[in-house]
Every structure is written in C-alpha cells, then in structure tokens.
Amino acid sequence: MVISAGAGSLVLGCATDFAELHRAGEITRLPRLLVAQPEHCSPLVQAFASGADAVEFAERRPTVAEGTSIARPVRDREVLRAVRDSAGAMSAVPEEKLRPATLELAKTGLYTEPTSAQVVPAVEQFARDGQLSPDDTIVTILAGSGYKASTASNYWKVEAAASLARSAGLELRSGN
Question: In terms of C-beta density within 10 A (0-12 exposed, 13-18 middle, 19 or more buried), how is residue 157 classed?
C-alpha cells in the first residue's frame, strides 16, 4: 500500500482497517505501508530513516504538495510505529518530480493534486530500493482532485497544450 502522508491520518486509518480485516479473517496477511512525503517537508521520513520514535521540528519549505506539508505531525509516534510494524518504508519525493507525476497521472485520466500524485515517484523509488518487486500488487490512494491545486492545474494545462501542439506539428512561442 503506497500512501502519501502529511499528518499521517490516512496511514493510521489504513493500518487500523487492515488490522480489523485481518482479525476478522477477511485478509490473510497485513500489507506493508509505504509512505511518501514531499522532500521539502518530510519529518516522518527523516524520523523513520534515523530510527527515531518521534519527529523533531522540521523546516517547512514551500512545496506544490501542500496537503502533505506538515512540519509537526501530531500522531507521529503512531504513524512511525504503524509503518515499522508493517515492515514498510518511507520516501521523500524531490520537488522537481511532483508536477511531472501529476501530469503523468492526468495523461491516464486521473486528475490529482501533487499531494496524491507524489506516490508515482515514490513507487519508482521504492522499486529502486528493493521495497517493491515486479511480482508485488501495488495499491495506492489518490484522494485529492487536481482542481484543488491551482499551480499544478496551470502546469498541467500548459503541458497539455504543448503536447497537443507538438502532436499537430505546431511550435509554441511566447508572445513578447
């Protein structure tokens, strides 16, 4: 399960619900929780990587994935424990990969905000790190509409127009 996280409530919800399904005999094993945060604000990833039980105050730099830009998650200890208990992992997604991920999903008909789209480069990173293999079934949650993030929306519109122009053999020029 690949999940984007700010405060981590979605991570905790998944961990709780999967545990209930397991106890009820509806699933035979608990899925691993693989978590993505924007590199510009990734206190959970930093705490996880250092082996800490809680996050330390993190600087919050601007990011287009503003929905997951939370410098001090209130339930950090629970989130870190849930990911560790699932044998999961965490990834800090570089800022320059967020908008292209939004566009990549939009090209498939999934118009999400960068907060959700950050799972795309995270999946790639988890695969490079050996956390995911070609035999794994990957499930993710794309919860935020692209209409919520105007900067990402504008980027997508420009890129879509440029792509259409190129496919028609046209060249785009800025008007000076």
Answer: exposed
The residues spanned by each domain of the chain are 2-167
Residue 25 backbone dihedrals phi, psi, to 5 degrees: 80, 15
- Encode pLDDT of 129-159 as tens digits: 999 999 999 999 998 877 776 555 555 555 6
Segment 109-136, tens digit of pLDDT: 888 889 999 999 999 999 999 999 999 9
Q: How far is the C-alpha of 134 from the C-alpha of 89, rounded, in Å?
A: 17
Please state which architecture CATH assigns to domain 2-167.
3-Layer(aba) Sandwich (3.40)
CB 120 within 8 A of CB 88: no
Written as one letter, the residue type at 19 is A
Separation between Cα atoms, residue 34 and residue 149, nearest integer Å: 24
